[in-house]
From TrEMBL:
PANTHER family membership: OS02G0105600 PROTEIN, OS06G0716467 PROTEIN
Annotated protein name in UniProt: F-box domain-containing protein
F-box domain mapped to chain residues: 1-34
Amino acid sequence: MEDLPAEILPVIISLLPLKEAVRTSIVSTSWKMLWTFHCNLCFYGPNELDDDPSVPPLESDEEAAVDEYVKTSQAKLKMKQDKFIEAVNCVIQRHSRVGINKFSIRCGLHKEEFYHLDRWIGFAASSKAKIVDFDLKKIDSPSREVHQFPLEALVVQGSSCVQSLYLADVSIKPHPGIFGFTLLRRLVLEFVEIFRDFSGFLANCSALEDLELIECSGVTNLSIPHQLDKLQHLLIDRMAVETVESNAADLAHFEYKGKEIPIVLHGRSKLEMATIMFEGSNGLARAFTAVPIILRVKVLNVQAQISAYEQKLAPRPCGMFMHLRHMTCGLTVLSLKKPNSDNGVLQLVHCLNVAPLLQTLHLDMIYSYFKASAPAEVAEEEGPHMHHHGHLKTVHISGFRCYKAQAELACCILENARVLDHMELQPRVAAAICSYADLKNFAVERRFLPGVREWAQLASERFGKAITVLDAPSE
C-alpha cells in the first residue's frame, strides 16, 4: 500500500465505511490524516428498539419491575446517544471539509440536544455536501417537539450545493424568499410539519426532478408550480391533503396513496407510470373511473382493498386505457365468510376490459377476514364477460388457492387472452402485499399446493395454454 501513488490512496480510503476509514489513521503516521478527506460522512445513531445485552432482561410483569426496566433502558440509550453526538462532533471538527459528497445523520434526538443539529447543518452547508440527509425519527419520544430545520442555513453566499435533500421528523417554514436551491434535484420529506408557503418555495427549485412527500402535515391544497418543468417523479403518500394540482409539464411518474381526492395533472400528457392506492373498499373501481389523468399511462400499479361482493365498475368509465401495457395489481379482499362465498375479485375482469392492449398482468391477492354481520342476501349476478384480448401474453397471480372466484377469473383470462404465452400461479401470498405473509403462508405447500397443481393441469388441458405453478417464493 505504501508504494501506491499519492493520489490513489485517498480514493481507496474513501471507499471504506467512515468508521473503518478513521481506524486507518493508526496504521502509520503518513496515513493519519487520510480519513479527513473521506467524501461520505454517514452517522447512524442508536435505535430505541435495538437490543442492548447490557440491560438485564425483564423477569417480571409487575409495575415496579417494568418501570425499573424502562428506566435502565432509557439511561443506556441516553449514554449511547451522548457517545454518538460526541463522535459526530469530533469527526466534523477534524475533517478537511474538502470533496464531501454525502452528509447523513440518522438518530432520534430530543429537544435538549437540538443545538447540535444547527452545528451539523452548518457543516453540511459550508462543506458543500451534495447529498444531505437528516433522519431524526424517534420511536419512543416523551414529547412531540420536533426540530425546526432552517432551510436557509443550507444556502451559503446566495447558493446551495445540495442536490438531494432528505428530512424526516422535523418542521420547516418554506417561503418564496428562500433562494439558492438551484441545484436541488431530489427532495424527500417524511413526517415533516410544513408551515407557510410550500408552493412558493418549490417555485425556486427549478432543477427538481424527484419530489416525495410521506405523511407530512400542514399542507391542505398541494399545488406543484409550473416552474418545476424538469420534475419527473411525484409521490404523495398518506398526506392529509384535500386536493392535488400539478403544473409540472414533463411529469412521467405519479404516485398517490391515501383517501380519494380531486387530482389534476396539467402538462403535455407525458405521464407514463402511475401508482394509485385509494383508501376504502371501493379503491379498485375508483382508480379506473375517477382518475382520468392516468388514462395515457403505459405502466399502472393499483393497490386496493375490495369488498367481497362489489363486482362492477361504474356504468360509464372515464375512458379506455389505450396506452396501458403493464399492470400490477395488489388486492386485499375484505371477506365476511370463507373465500368460496364471494366474487369480489371478478371486478378485475371489467378493469381488463378497459385496457385492450395490455401485455402483462401481475396480480397479488390476499383475503382478510373480519367479524361483521354478513348481508342477508347477496344478489346472484351473471358471471363476468371478458372481452377478447389480442395482446395479453404474460399473467402472474400470487395468493392463488383455487377459491371459486379466483378460478373463475383465471378461466376468463385463459379463455379470452388469445396470445397468452403462459400463466404463473403461486399459492403463496406475496410479501409485497402483506407484512405478515409468513403467517398467511403457514403450511401452504401442504394445504394448497397439490390442489393448485391439479387445477392447473386440468385448466391447461382445457384451454391449451401453458400454466406454471410456483412452489417457492418469487423474487
